[in-house]
Amino acid sequence: MKTKVWEISAEELDSPETAEKLEEIKTALTYGEIIGLPTETVYGLAGDARNPEAIQKIFQAKGRPQDNPLIVHIHDINQLEKFAEIPDERVLRLMEAFWPGPISFILPLKGGYITAKTVADLRSVAVRMPSHPVGLKILEYTDIPLAAPSANISGKPSPTDYRHVVDDLKGKMYGVVNSAPANYGIESTVLDCTTFPYQIARPGEITKADLERVLDEEIKVHEGDAAKPVSPGMKYKHYAPTQPLILIEGIVMGQTLKAEKDERKLGVIAPESFRSSVPDEVEFISLCRKEDDYREAAKNLYGALRKMDKSDVDKIYIYRFRENPSSAALLNRIYKATGDVLIKGEQISE
Questions:
Q1: Is 132 assigned to a binding site?
Q2: How far is CA 311 from CA 243, 265, 299, 304, 305, in A?
């Protein structure tokens, strides 16, 4: 299959040229095709959430396990009436505060509208309303609830630019939208509203503190992976490059690299402040300027992992950021990518 590329910018959403592209995208989605869709978190691989054939194409293109549920993307809260229950007014308060934006809500499912393949046969469905102007416009124009997991090969770094989507899925999808890169660079926060207290099933840009400020009550954080995940990112290893990826604490980075640099071609992903401690022959990619700039690091993380994947290094070290509420989403993605292997002092712990 030849993959089409549509160039659509936020500044030209009302142009006749864009209208033609939107109509072509709507036709493709209506007939069960799948496309690369820009959002403010990462690019999604989108298909009609009501169409089992379209959903199967998503799973096949990604090589995604069938028990890993997909998030449904909408443009209007009224669309929920057809396939999801809103447990109480607190959920509406959160939606009003954070939608459109980088948060997904797990809600009780109303059967008969969304295909069971989309929700991996669960009785719940994760839903979000993206804020990327082009992604949201496509959802509005097509008026189709779109299941859209990250548009990458399953387990690999998520795509934050349309070129990442083409690298992974060219020939496996009908088309991809070339638009502005993702603002946040990591997947949405997922809040499970089928339990009480509500639980964060996957951390993201919207934090526990952000949610608690709106509700003025405690939000729990899901601990551990689920045997049958209710959210993407809960069960399988994710976001990993091809080469071994090892967590390393900054205090031992210099000595570790010097000891290994003659044996392997090494790469390092770390804040800019560590560049001076990295030998010249070691590939270095800066994630952020300052060690506490977690948002910048998160935005650049997947791009850095993909760049290292295209280099000739055969082992990658990635800096372990300090653990605190602001770094939770970033560290979640790094831990998933490394498998929690950490070099700390003279020991490797798991």
A1: no
A2: 10, 10, 20, 11, 10
**222 is known to lie in a ligand binding site:** no
163 in a labelled binding site: no
Q: Is 150 annotated as a binding residue?
A: yes
- Residue 128 labelled as part of a binding site: yes
Q: What is the residue type of 64?
A: R
Strand partners, 349: 342
Residue 15 in tokens: 């142009």
For the chain, 350 residues long, give each residue's pLDDT as a single digit of tens: 899 999 999 999 999 999 999 999 999 999 999 999 999 999 999 999 999 999 999 999 999 998 899 999 999 999 999 999 999 999 999 999 999 999 999 999 998 999 999 999 999 999 999 999 999 999 999 999 999 999 999 989 999 999 999 999 999 999 999 999 999 999 999 999 999 899 999 999 999 999 999 999 999 998 755 555 666 655 555 678 888 999 999 888 888 888 886 777 999 999 999 999 898 899 999 999 999 999 999 999 999 999 999 999 999 999 999 999 999 999 999 998 988 666 655 433 33
Domains of the chain: 4-221 (3.90.870.10), 245-349 (3.40.50.11030)
Task: State how far the Cα of 11 lies from the Cα of 168, in Å rounded to an integer.
Answer: 28
- Asked whether residue 188 is marked as a ligand-binding residue, the answer is yes
Distances (CA, A) of 7 to 33, 38, 155, 197, 234: 18, 11, 27, 43, 34
- State yes or no: 64 annotated in a binding site: yes
Residue 3 marked in a binding site: no
Look-up of token digits 């490059």? 241
Q: How far apart are CA 65 and CA 208, in angstroms?
A: 29
- Tell if the pTM clears 0.70, that is, is over it: yes
